[in-house]
From TrEMBL, chain A:
One of its GO terms (biological process) is SRP-dependent cotranslational protein targeting to membrane. It is an enzyme of class 3 (hydrolase). It comes from freshwater metagenome. Its EC number is 3.6.5.4. This is signal-recognition-particle GTPase.
Length: 502, 302
């Protein structure tokens, strides 16, 4: 719904090429665009003004050279500023010298505390800890029941002596829970508390009593990534009412830009420690400032796209496919179909493409994508015999006629699909020969995804998308974590600017 | 038909926190003429209330026009905000079965944690108080203990509950609820759906299916999006995507009792024309009031 900042700036700078230096008016215009973009990302107004001032100072010296796009230079500046703010206070969870480490969760109603308690428990368990969950939300109907079920799902013990629904003393439960952990030798205790409003003095008071009873090592403030301008007020109320040592951002699987992250890091000065992003209890990760900065700026979320792809297609399948190509086997229509189906699970084609950096340049094509094209391609492939799918070369005229009839398409459509498939196959062969840049862990794109995307799109799209995916490959290399030596100049200007700006 | 504006009036004290907004605006207008600093302050107040850049811009433009006609600032602002909240669609809701005896059906949808189940409980209570016989469909079969939670609310409200197995088909449960309501001659079926982020295509499709299946039993009268008042600009996207999936008829704005001001509803109403029908004002079963634009703005400005 919102234009990303890079789109806006591209428009602003469209007439600028060839000028030696940004004029005051250009900078003014730029600042307005940045301000609006950050506000649309729900960054708190006071924080927006601060960032805009910094960018203004740094923009004065920006040279407009024919080869470089000034909007990308400005974006690099903003990106650096955002990463600096977001990452400035980054740290990981502090474990107590004498176990158990006590972690208390606090936040507004509906922020996702109970789900998060389960995710955190699972994450800690995987890290080799022996967490205990303590059910202190005795307020919300059946919160205790929910936490019990979550505990069961992740296989972590729970202490829930009170039924909840308004019955029981949460302070006593918290104290007894920590005591139990001590005797049963659990090294981490996660205390789930009732959601409360910042303005609710009574509940805030209760939370601070729980805090005093168990003296937690970490108090995590759980906040919904969709929160708007109220983020600061709420965080301040919690900071003053209960105090917290770190922030967890939830529901990052939505498309909210999550500007609250910036507001919290900048004003409250507490680190954002975890990012939670999905319905499954395993959808939980450490917080990466770079990803968040890109997200706030709407720069295309390559990392998330890659993760979604991995999730949709399944890690095992990706590995199997990679092994297959590594061993020199060819890319077949069966692989093509599998990828296509994986793509379909990730959502609409236009949404997926919209996540790519540089999507702005293809806006019109993206809007024109015929979503049912995938269905038609699927029908055609499914009308082939297994033998034909594995050996597309045998597809002669009569086979093609049969396939066209079976799938209810025209022979010309079968032909054009085969042409596009052959293109994808070529690309895959090149990649198998080492054309694919080394990807950092956790950011693997299923091989050939690009082929499927580029070729599945129908006439006119193939070419552009092939390049778009080239950009994806380059984009991977642009992240901070990647020691990329190859001078893979990204096809995408935003990424290239970032690479060069470093 | 039900449009109990008196109810919001009774619960006005609950709107107290959002009145800061109004007080602040009144404080801004110290004189009959506005200088740049005052315009800036007004803009900051609107942006700070999550009204969003586009809606803020149009509100300010409208306000300038009224001011140029020499309107008094507070009056101009009241008129501007009322105009921004004006809606062609009615905010009224039918709680009693139609003349031919078919129950009214409401689908309650929204993202995770917005307050759907609580709103269903409050709506059920409100309808029962108005003399309606209510059936609740526990169609959130996904979240742990969601059925138990809505069961507690159903008991409190005095509504009948139709539920299924965890992980079961929500459409089937909703359909069963409608069927049961028809048999027992109930007035209203409230379908509590699972929270879903609007970015999950499969889940949005599932919502469409729930609607289609329910419609085999009875027409769906209302599809209400539950929106947390703390939601920022993403609320507009939510309303748009949910609207595309199931054609929303209205919004329930929840958690308006906190410090959040829910300004995003102005953008939703302006850009999408979806009216806010109810506001949630607290954790009690009685804390749901029909939205009334005039009283809302009155509350903002008093």
């Amino acid at each position: 719904m919102f234009d990303s900042l890079s789109d806006r700036l591209s428009q602003t700078f469209a007439t600028l090429r060839g000028k030696g230096r940004l004029s005051d008016k250009d900078i003014e215009q730029t600042c307005t665009e940045i301000r609006e973009a950050l506000l649309e990302a729900d960054v708190a107004l006071s924080v927006v003004n601060g960032v805009v001032e910094k960018v203004r100072e740094r923009s004065v010296g920006v040279q407009v050279t024919p080869g470089l796009n000034p909007s990308q230079q400005i974006i690099t500046i903003i990106y650096e500023e955002l990463v600096a703010v977001l990452g400035g206070a980054a740290r990981r969870i502090t474990l107590a010298k004498r176990p158990p480490t006590v972690i208390m969760l606090a936040g507004l109603q509906g922020a996702g505390k109970t789900t998060l308690a389960g995710k955190l428990a699972m994450w800690l368990k995987r890290e080799g800890h022996t967490p205990l969950l303590v059910a202190c939300d005795l307020q919300r109907p059946n919160a205790v029941e929910q936490l019990s079920q979550v505990a069961k799902q992740v296989g972590v013990p729970i202490f829930s002596p009170e039924p909840g629904n308004g019955v029981g003393d949460p302070i006593k439960v918290a104290r007894d829970g920590v005591e139990l952990a001590r005797t049963k030798l659990h090294d981490v205790v996660i205390v789930d508390t009732a959601g409360r409003l910042g303005v609710d003095a009574e509940l805030m008071n209760q939370a601070s009593k729980i805090r005093d009873a168990i003296s937690p090592d970490e108090i995590l403030f759980v906040v919904d990534a969709m929160i708007g301008q109220d983020a600061l007020t709420t965080a301040e109320a919690f900071r003053d009412g209960v105090g917290f040592t770190g922030v967890v951002l939830t529901k990052l699987d939505g498309d909210a830009r999550g500007g609250a992250a910036l507001s919290l890091s900048s004003v409250i000065g507490k680190p954002i420690m975890f990012a939670s992003s999905g319905e499954k209890l395993s959808d939980f990760d450490l917080f990466y400032p770079e990803r968040m900065a890109q997200r706030i700026l709407g720069m295309g979320d390559v990392a998330s796209l890659a993760e979604q792809a991995k999730r949709a297609i399944g890690g095992d399948e990706i590995e199997a496919m990679e092994a297959k190509f590594a061993s020199g086997q060819d890319f077949t229509l069966t692989d093509f179909l599998k990828q296509m189906q994986g793509l379909k699970q990730m959502g609409s084609m236009s949404k997926i493409l919209g996540m790519l950096p540089g999507a702005a340049a293809m806006k019109k094509q993206i809007a024109d994508i015929d979503e049912s094209e995938i269905v038609r391609v699927e029908a055609i492939i499914q009308s082939m015999t297994p033998l034909e799918r594995e050996n597309p070369k045998i597809l002669n005229g009569s086979r093609r006629a049969r396939i066209a009839q079976g799938s209810g398409r025209k022979v010309s459509e079968v032909n054009s699909l085969m042409e596009r498939f052959t293109g994808a196959q070529k690309m895959m062969r090149q990649m198998a020969k080492g054309g694919m840049p080394q990807l950092p862990p956790g950011m693997k794109m299923p091989m050939g995804m690009g082929g499927a995307m580029g070729q599945g799109m129908g006439p006119g799209m193939g070419q552009g998308m092939g390049q778009g995916m080239g950009a994806l490959g380059g984009g991977f290399g642009a992240g901070k974590q990647t020691p990329q030596k190859k001078k893979s100049k990204s096809g995408n200007p935003a990424k290239r600017a970032l690479e060069e700006g470093r | 038909m039900f449009n109990g504006s008196g109810r919001l009036f009774r619960r006005r004290e609950k709107l107290e926190p959002s009145q800061k907004f109004g007080r602040r605006l009144r404080a801004i207008f110290t004189s009959g003429k506005l200088d740049q600093a005052e315009w800036d302050e007004l803009e900051a107040t609107l942006l700070g209330a999550d009204v969003g850049t586009n809606a803020t811009r149009s509100i300010l433009a409208d306000m300038r026009e009224r001011m140029s006609r020499k309107d008094e600032p507070v009056e101009a602002l009241r008129a501007t905000l009322l105009a921004a909240l004006a809606c062609e669609q009615s905010r009224d809701i039918e709680l009693r079965k139609s003349a031919d005896g078919t129950p009214r059906v409401m689908l309650i949808v929204g993202v995770n944690g917005a307050g759907k189940t609580t709103s269903v409980g409050k709506l059920a209570h409100l309808a029962v108080e108005e003399g309606a016989q209510v059936v609740i469909a526990a169609a959130d079969t996904f979240r742990a203990a969601a059925t138990e939670q809505v069961e507690t609310w159903a008991k409190r409200a005095g509504a009948q509950l139709i539920s299924g197995e965890p992980g079961g088909d929500p459409a089937a449960i909703a359909f069963d609820a409608v069927k049961s309501a028809k048999e027992s001659g109930a007035d209203l079926v409230l379908v509590d759906t699972a929270g879903r982020l609007h970015t999950k295509v499969d889940l949005m499709n599932e919502l469409g299916k729930v609607r289609r299946v329910v419609e085999k039993g009875a027409a769906v009268d209302e599809i209400l999006l539950v929106l947390d008042a703390t939601t920022g600009q993403n609320g507009l996207t939510q309303a748009k995507v949910f609207g595309d999936a199931v054609a929303l008829t209205g919004v329930i704005l929840t958690k308006l009792d906190g410090s959040a001001r829910g300004g995003i509803i102005i953008a939703i109403q302006q850009e999408l024309g979806i009216p806010v029908k109810f506001v949630g004002l607290g954790e009690g079963i009685d804390d749901l009031a029909p939205f009334d634009a005039e009283l809302f703005v009155e509350g903002i400005l008093s």
